[in-house]
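Quick check before the chapter quiz. The format below is the same one you will see on the exam, so make sure you can read both the input and the output lines.
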Amino acid sequence: MITLYAATSNPGKLRDFAVAAEEEQNALIQPLPGLDSITPPPEDEPTFDANARTKAIYYSRFLPDAMVIADDSGLEVDALDGEPGVRSARYAADAGFVADEHTTADQRNNRYLLTRLQQVPSGQRTARYRCVIAAARDGECVLAAEGVVSGEILTSPRGQGGFGYDPLFYLSELGKTMAEIDLAMKHHLSHRGRALRALLLAMPAI
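Here is the expected output.
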């Protein structure tokens, strides 16, 4: 069994990674020690793949001889030519979109996305969550893998679970948004989980 050190303190990401690793039964996921004291690198690459690789390489230098993983993920909407993409977490802020002071960053991003899609009819609001996870050791990227979940964007949010764009991300095969499904189903469908499972399947080859 291999131990992978995840360069994230996000509990949702760590949970997705841990569930996927448990399913594959060939890896143990641990948070990168001392992550809070490490100055994060800039995330200014144009693709998920490049950002994930850059972060994995950077953080691997802080834990010699260990396999460190880092991810980059977000939402791609076809009608917006792939926006928000790598700027998913900062979508509204980048645009200077202002909402009332009581809204969270996630709520502002969702409201801005709905504004951008106001003239786009149902059936043309296809989208996907995409995640790339890269693994690096001693400053060298050794592997990267991708996971994707396809859906469409609703005209109003539904559900109280999840985070990010989950209340707008509709899964037609389930008839529910990502914010309406239970945790077990979400972990199974997660784009992060799919990316990690793909990474783990390729691990024996390196």
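If your answer matched, good. The CA atoms of residues 20 and 169 lie 21 Å apart.
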